[in-house]
Amino acid sequence: MLAGLVGTVVASGLLLRGAWDLWAQSLVLLGLLAASAAWLCARLVSGWLPRPEDRTFGWILALVSLSALSAFLSPVPAYSRPAWAASAAGLSLFPLISVLDSEGRERVERFLRGAGWALLLLAVYQRLHSESRPPATFINQNAFAGAILLLLPIASRAGHWALAGGLLLCLWWTRSVGAWLGLAAALLLHRRAAGAAAFWPAAAAGFVGLVAAYAKFQPPETLHRVEWWKAAWRMAAEAPWLGLGPGSYAYALPAYAAGRPELSSVFAHQYFLETAAERGWPYVLLWILGLAVLLKPAPAARRFGPVAALIHGLVDYPLSVPGVFWLFCASTALAAPESGRSVNVPLRWRPVLCASVLIAASASGIFVWRGWSADRLRAQGIESIRAGRLDEAASTLSASEVLSPHPEAARLRAEIILARGGSAVEAAGHLARAIALDPYRASNQKMLRALQR
Question: What is the secondary structure of 368-393 as a DSSP string?
């Protein structure tokens, strides 16, 4: 059951556009919570509970706690809290996979290979229908390239060379320079295990990647990337301990980009700088040290994918996409040894612990469901505004804010009041709340100053 749960979570994250949309994240999280609670209660009732390694469990608990503190103290909590929930789901895969035996781990990899085949076939279909750079299910080709780097070793270890060859072809189609550099660097780092035959292909791929990177150095997007890195560095310098909150980079960027709208970006295109800006330097250091401890003693075949993805993260953002991050966490956890430990649960404690698990899972599920419901209501409110049904839109947005306060909903309510000729004071109150929930959106502050005048 546990292997199927883990495999389904990671595979569905890949196939649902990398779980980029809130509805996809929420669907996967609700399934993870329900299935995890059912599995834990079943193990508690049996009296035998697998126990993850103390060091791994403590590391994950520290990471989840640090990022939770960052999310709930964030200046943009409406965006940070859902992003924290998605990252916590990925981190939870470490203790879950650590208690799986070798058969369970192979079952997880079968799920991942099945997802790889689905992505490959979809990419081929897109290519045949005049899509020169097929993104498969992802938001773009760079995110697809990041997933390919992690799926390639899984296919190769099982001897599925047709899948591995197809994924390499897809990687070529994506034209992701960063992914090819990550692949080449990982091959060079593992050349002893891969054999001497891997050195020259890796060197050639690295050389081609460097030439391509040099050729792209002049275009505006490359110069913009340097500015995005600088902005992330400034964010991390301003909030070094906890950052600005998970998922906050895109919303805080206007305040750190010197008023240049052409620098608008969802990601910093540098995973470690973005993580420091959003979660703080202590989180980054703890994350890197834990990964090093897990990956260093692992066999080269299992270490290869996570190392290639981390190198890719030095110049791009796929690890910031939830589905790719979950795949990375699963791949890294599969590289660690099995825990092989268990705890005998006394009979008198079984009902209490099972009830606690169900209460915690229900509370977490309500948190996820409320956020998802509020997002749906906001979307309905926007559609009502476009259709000219302002009364209906105001009611829908009010219901959305009851479930989960959001700066966009507050701003829209202010605009509806002004469009209907309502009280400027009431509209100013909604704008003030929007600014409190997102202090980086300059247009809200400009509108509020106009109303005050």
Answer: HHHHHHHHHHHHHHHHHHHTT-HHHH
